[in-house]
């Protein structure tokens, strides 16, 4: 729920309490209620650490929609009966992390805080682009202003939000300087490394600029060139990622919260989709050995089979009840999934180089070739798996992909289609992004909405029909609905819905229109 609501309740309660006690000895009450152990000031470094740890963890929820995994409808706690969307989840970032960023920035008042302020601006843009991409227009300029009596924030247009986010990234990156301090060890991404933060800012700028490619090509090209010339990620050492400990519970690796593999005897979970496995096998993708496994049972022992030939994907949306051959389908390898120590990549060079490849494809940038950028992106995408700890039982296949396997993939497996049509090359770049950004479901979803690639088939029930009970008639949803703010900010929310052409009625009968509505940059 929006924290503005809590602040309203808090203010009303405090005012009523003060009025009731107006005749009491206020000095005595103050002395009585001051907790000597309570911290009554903001420590920016602590807040920034919390923001970094929590902001990226909102991205994993669309693995079935983006056809990484599939299952049957009646599986307990996983199937269709459990997939009711909770609108408030979308605003989890907005209701907590943006308020923390505002508090952090308000506490940074010294001229020497220029780097810390810049990092707050950068990560604020990171969080807001996830939110607006998912829902459309959102409170932005008025957000997190409850203490300034802005209790009913207006909804800014997505176009205005994108304009400001790109400006913020440009200004923040330019303001970073080695002459002033940073958050240091409180920065869990980069330990205060300004050079890496510049690359983060420009890589994010390149992502956002490309989002506008079909809506405002001039602005997209302008900021794409600023980003590329400013310097985006190119090395594995540039990767921004969260590291987790096996003993940590808050936060813990998000993969443990969305387990597709509870144990080798995965009788009631998800399996890898035929879309993913077919892509792996057709192109002889060496990531197969890192990500995919079929468990075979011998007596009471389960043995991991990671051979390419044994991998088998489930067709998404094609099975209602438990299939007899369910155990024979591939599932995520324990190298990646169900590991307390699995890292979470926030932003990396694989995406940056694929975005450069697309910029070259569109004729915006001439400093490299599409193939060179594509090859570097694929190389970095495969090298990034070395961040994951090995699983001895899966040896000789482990998280490190050899250079020979990478070279073979780029030359005979899935080489860049230099002589292909524009659409063929865009499809290959986008498909590679789908493969490379596993774990960043929201970004893959946004890129799919923008480009239409990879090609997903969402109507696989009995051949070519929508899955029984599908609210959207077998179409992938294109946005997430707002939480119901009729009691707190109804006028502004209704205005935003009307402006975007989304249904005003929050009831179930309007779900299809709400889910299939397109945000600004996604509209033809």
UniProtKB/TrEMBL annotation:
Transmembrane segments: none annotated. It comes from the Bacteria. SUPFAM superfamilies: TPR-like. Keywords: Signal. The keyword Signal applies. Gene3D superfamilies: 1.25.40.390. InterPro entries: SusD-like_2, TPR-like_helical_dom_sf. Residues 1-28 form the signal peptide. This is SusD/RagB family nutrient-binding outer membrane lipoprotein.
């Amino acid at each position: 729920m929006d924290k503005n609501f809590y602040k309203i309740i808090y203010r009303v309660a405090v005012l009523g309490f003060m009025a009731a006690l107006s005749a009491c000895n206020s000095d005595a009450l103050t002395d009585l209620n001051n907790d000597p152990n309570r911290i009554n000031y903001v420590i920016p470094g602590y807040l920034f650490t919390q923001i970094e740890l929590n902001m990226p963890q909102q991205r994993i929820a669309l693995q079935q929609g983006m056809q990484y995994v599939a299952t049957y409808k009646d599986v307990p706690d996983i199937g269709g009966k459990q997939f009711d969307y909770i609108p408030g989840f979308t605003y989890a970032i907005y209701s907590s992390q943006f308020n923390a960023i505002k508090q952090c920035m308000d506490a940074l008042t010294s001229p020497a805080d220029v780097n810390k302020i810049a990092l707050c601006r950068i990560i604020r843009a990171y969080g807001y682009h996830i939110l607006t991409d998912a829902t459309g227009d959102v409170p932005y300029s008025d957000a997190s202003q409850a203490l300034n009596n802005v209790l009913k924030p207006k909804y800014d247009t997505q176009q205005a939000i994108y304009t400001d986010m790109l400006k913020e990234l440009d200004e923040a990156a330019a303001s970073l300087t080695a002459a002033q301090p940073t958050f240091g060890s409180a920065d869990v991404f980069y330990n205060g490394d300004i050079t890496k933060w510049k690359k983060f800012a420009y890589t994010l700028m390149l992502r956002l600029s490309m989002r506008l490619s079909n809506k405002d090509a001039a602005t997209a090209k302008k900021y794409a060139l600023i980003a590329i010339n400013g310097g985006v990620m190119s090395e594995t050492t540039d990767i921004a990622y969260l590291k987790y400990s096996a003993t940590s519970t808050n936060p813990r690796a998000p993969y443990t919260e969305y387990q597709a593999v509870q144990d080798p005897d995965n009788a009631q979970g998800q399996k890898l989709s035929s879309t993913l496995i077919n892509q792996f096998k057709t192109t002889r993708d060496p990531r197969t050995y890192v990500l995919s496994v079929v468990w075979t049972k011998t007596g009471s022992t389960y043995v991991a089979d990671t051979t390419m030939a044994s991998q088998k994907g489930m067709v998404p949306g094609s099975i209602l009840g438990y299939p007899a051959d369910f155990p024979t389908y591939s599932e995520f390898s324990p190298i990646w999934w169900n590991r307390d120590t699995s890292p979470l990549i926030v932003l990396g060079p694989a995406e940056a180089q694929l975005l450069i490849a697309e910029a070259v494809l569109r004729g915006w940038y001439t400093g490299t070739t599409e193939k060179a950028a594509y090859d570097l992106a694929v190389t970095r995408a495969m090298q990034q798996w070395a961040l994951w700890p090995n699983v001895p039982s899966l040896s000789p296949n482990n998280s490190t992909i050899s250079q020979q396997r990478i070279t073979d993939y780029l030359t005979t497996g899935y080489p860049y289609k230099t002589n292909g049509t524009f659409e063929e090359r865009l499809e290959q770049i986008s498909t590679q992004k789908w493969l490379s950004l596993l774990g960043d479901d929201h970004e893959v979803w946004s890129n799919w909405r923008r480009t239409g690639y990879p090609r997903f088939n969402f109507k696989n029930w009995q051949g070519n029909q929508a899955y029984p009970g599908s609210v959207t008639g077998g179409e992938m949803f294109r946005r997430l609905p707002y939480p119901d703010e009729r009691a707190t900010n109804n006028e502004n929310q209704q205005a935003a819905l009307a402006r975007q052409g989304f249904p005003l009625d929050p009831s179930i009968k309007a779900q299809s229109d709400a889910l299939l509505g397109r945000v600004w940059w996604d509209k033809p």
